[in-house]
Amino acid sequence: MILDPTDDGYRRRMIGKLQKKLPIVTEDPVELSSRVIDAGVHDEQVNRVTQTLSVLDDDLSIVESFSNIVSFRTDEGLVCFDSSGQITAGRTMEAVRGWTDDPIHTLIYTHGHVDHVGGSGAMAADAADRGHEPIRVVGHHCVADRFRRYELTNGYNTDINMRQFGGVGGVKDMALGDVPQFLPDDVLWPDLEVGSSHTLSVGGREFETRHAKGETDDHLWTWVPHDKALCVGDLVTWVFPNCGNPQKVQRYPLEWAQALREMMTYEAEWLLPAHGLVVRGADRVSTVLCDLAAALELLTEETLAMMNAGESLDAIIHQVTVPDDLLVKPWMQPVYDEPEFVVRNLWRLYGGWWDKNPAHLKPAPETVFAAEMAALAGGADVLTSRATELAAAGDLRLACQVVELAVQADPESTTAHGARAEIYQQRRNEEFSLMSKGIFAAVARESRAIVDQ
Ligand SMILES: [Zn+2]
After folding, report:
1. Of 27, 62, 357, 369, most Cβ neighbours within 10 A?
2. Distance from the CA of 120 to the center of ligand 1, in angstroms?
3. Beta strand pairing status for 69-74 and 77-81?
4. Does 288 share its domain with 368?
């Protein structure tokens, strides 16, 4: 079943299901995930930023934060997966120290995103305060390339994170957008850089790391045979895969799915993700991994089939999506990223930047085109009125396109900007992904500021 995301019925069903504000009731993340997966009941938050540590097994714990810290206690000290972000590092470190005073022997980065590495400075400071040995930091060799890229694109990345995370309530705990420097100065760089696979032995436990492209080019997922545990970073996040992000660098849907399929062969008892709930039990682990892989495979296959058949990007984004019975599952919901953006990302990965509309190859400046359309319509005010009508009728895709022409044709018009602010606010309210909400809310703020001047 292929559903058009512009179809009203689809949108109403999805919005109804996804916009409910859910509580946090069950403390134990394993009890909660087992119930959610077994019964398909989704009555509590599954991505919890509680900064609370749960002991999962004698020597295994997780701190649920933005992102999680997974810790294994070994005879030589702790092996931690990720350090959470800089702003939450005080509370996540306190949570770990509430569990054990053991030194952190090794910190494994599942990848180099700032919400995973930003707390490493606080871990290093904790080690120094306690007189422990310096922490060994392990990461794929592309992590350092990423850190260097962050230095090159500091302004861009700070700006897009403000927009990405600025359109939803309760983002203060994520604390990503308001740091002046995108990559904090005190972040630890990997001192052991690994490649496609590498086995570490720490205090009687083996940690078998595997490189995979997916959300990033620098992901490491790790099999811990002693505990039959998979530490998977952002390859599992209890939301639809962050594999299309409109403001960020290339993602890899097919390679991501292949990594998930490889994980399934281990029949793990523990699935330890960097966001969202721990999963316990081989069947439940398999269910989650399989659904994620299936969605990414479906988008890849259908997008490639249409690309190979000579279709345009426009045709593909309005036709290829994921069935909504898969999207409404609690570990699959498009509340962060969404399938339409994955399709665009696939086009970028396998094709060129040209979308096959010949007018887009070497267009006139947008303001010149908008002025021409406004002149044909009878003025920017006519476009503004029409955009407002379209929005009132619920066609927000078209309303946004028309109101953009109005403000581009007459950038000083407070009437056009007033309508634009309202249309994008309405659109923000009706979208379900954080990424769409963030961008649309930023545009509404921009136009409101012009009106208020
Ligand atoms: Zn993450």
Report:
1. 62
2. 15
3. antiparallel
4. no
